Amino acid sequence: MDEMEGRRIAVRLKRVLCGILSLAVMGMSYLTSPLEVSASGEKADVVGSVNMAGNPDFDSDSVMNDEGSQWRWLGYPESRMVMNYGSQMMARYDGKLSLDIAMAVKGFRTVNSVHQILMGPAAGQATEYTDLETAWYPYRLTADAVYEEGKLHMDEFFADKDTFIRMIEVSDAADARLQMKSAIDGVTKHGNDLLVEQGDYWFVCKILKLNEDGEITGQYEPQVSEGKWSVEITFDSDSAKLAFSLTMLPKNVEENSADRARELADKTLAEGTDLNAVLADTKQFWDETLAKVPAPQNFGVEGNEKNGKIAGEDHRRAFYAAWTFRLQNIVEPTPENGYDYYQVTLGMASAWNSGAASAPNSCSWESMYDIQQLSYIEPEIAWDAMRGFIYNIDENGILDGECLPSQKAHTVWVCYLNMLQNHPEKEAELKEELEKLYPHLQNYLLWRAENPRWIHGANDYPNEKDLSFVTQWYSDVHYAIKIAEIIGKDEDIAVYNRKKEEMAENSRVWFFDEYDPNQPDSLENRIKAFCFINEDGTLEHSWPGSSHDAQSRDALTYVYEAMTVDFPKDLTDKLVHSYLSYTAGKEDEPLLGFESYKYGDGCYTAYGLLEREKQYPELEGKWIEYVDAVLCNAIKNTEFGEVIRVYEDTTTVEGVQPSSFSASAIIDYTYMKNGLRLDMGIPVAIGDPDIDKTEETDVTVQTGIGVKPELPKTVTVEKGGKELQALVSWPVIEEEQYSAKGKFQVTGQIYGTDLEAACIVKVLSGNEKNVMWIVAAGIAAGIAVAGAAVIFKRKK
């Protein structure tokens, strides 16, 4: 037996004994974290420099973007439609100002050139514009076009989730004519309305006459022939106003019909309706919606040599655009596709469709983060969207669609806490729902423990292990344990902790053993992000046909998020050493030497750098350096996307776009820079100088002999007499401290302050009779049982 094998056997034996003791402890104690699930107590209004109630004076016009690089998508919360889909280049207007639409109707689809505009001399040819200026606002898009003859200004906006309007004002038009047209199958004329009937939806389009005040006075009559429609308009003065509207209803939903679509369009756009007032109402809706967003007070990023400085105005604009994007990606339930839940998609304008067949634009990774953030301002929609994902996990633990890192239990927990905070009267109802959701989570996490890997199309390698999947499995198990505590599934907690122990030792072999920190870091000598297991048990770090290669320059992007995992200390030592070695001397590189950034992984890297500062003082300030680099590049690239990729001395956006990952980074990291973390389901202060300790700050934790205690990440403090959670950093707990019955104290520091928090750790021996019974049962069954019991109690 070699030394390595002996060490592994010793570890397994220790794990069995620790698990036996911890199960005995489980029988005598109930696991709970009462503070984190309590809806009682008045909560702090301001966390760090973030006003949790938002900014009641928010004005959408204050974040207008008329620069060369601007967002072009436009949607509306709960709408099935988004206008101008695709990447920035694709979404730019063509010469005809063509209207392109992506829709969540019986799956996901796109339809192009639904409306086009040409203009020219009254007696000549209507042509494309010669010059164009555009601007983006949360609630509208504007275009100012110049033609050979005449000019126009156009406002595009949603009247509501079903109706979209292009309101046009022409000038220098006395000798001009304007043509609107489209070629679209299924178009017929009903009076002066255009009815477009497709297999799964109806459009009702109107070409509206407006007076000088913007009121509807009638309709122009379009001409229809063989799947094409057009209308020619001449003017008797230099200026005039008109509009195009489109109302959409899906088929096979409740009482929807062609007649109902026309009735809805007639009601929304009745004669006498003031479209300027409709636009003002839309603006007011967005002003009030974005006013609810927890409002940071500090914007602007210093950056580094290559990234430069990000002005406060640009940062603030990107932050609220990210929230706008998040809100415009809310889709109402789509029962015609068998999906009766809200969706928070990764980006309707991306037209991505690799999710579940019933919700193809919803992604089980990006959308989960989106739902978590949304739950702070729209908790009911977020709760329902979360339910849609979780209830679609089958009895084998598999969720349809692209198989991505786990955020399931995490999302359930965040949504649960925000629902409980907003609806404390529903605590019993919410707990009952948790009990229904939990079996799906459990099935998923047990399946994922055996399959920590990416599965998508032909990329399906059962022998693959992926460190990023392992990291986020650990995170999800952490939240699954919290849920199990709430619903009284104590026996499952031991199973989860046994799985965690096994995963840690497997990870040692899969990812860490080949890294020697005493040798220079290189493509060969590094912590491995990926592992493929041969039939004989030997390891490879790349595989024929797979895009994953642990020695690629990109691979380290997926490694350092593991600093958040409570691995054995020697593994965390390697992670910290490797991070510092890799980034040394690269402080002025766009992404600190990394080739790319993806929020789903990078957020954990930021959290790990932050949380490990107490144990590794050499990491002090590294999280700020990291989030600053990401913020600079996410903001400079304007468009939101899946991946930020280094290109020479700057970066570009790659992958799915526009999609939510870089939007999530801007939101999350802006809050972190303002002293707030939202990822835990409750507002958590990081570095708030105005907090004080309370009688609830110090805590007690119980564990079994030989079972490493899990200390809480937050403690209760107060700010201005109101309750608040604050991040606490604990020192390393040595193994000998919990190797025998007794108790000891751990002193942590409330992050960013001089305040200390004390934790009394009680090490229990358990019931000897129960221990012997468990040993006998375990031997008889031929199984190894392990786990950890942790009880959080606030000292009184």
TrEMBL record:
Q: Which Pfam families match?
A: Big_4 (PF07532)
Q: Indicate the secretion signal residues.
A: none
InterPro entries cross-referenced by the UniProt entry: 6-hairpin_glycosidase_sf, Big_4
- Keyword list, A-Z: Membrane, Transmembrane, Transmembrane helix
Residues passing through the membrane, by range: 771-792
Kindly list the biological process annotations in GO that this record carries.
Answer: carbohydrate metabolic process
The Bacterial Ig-like domain covers which part of the protein?
Answer: 698-752
Q: What is this protein called?
A: Ig-like domain-containing protein
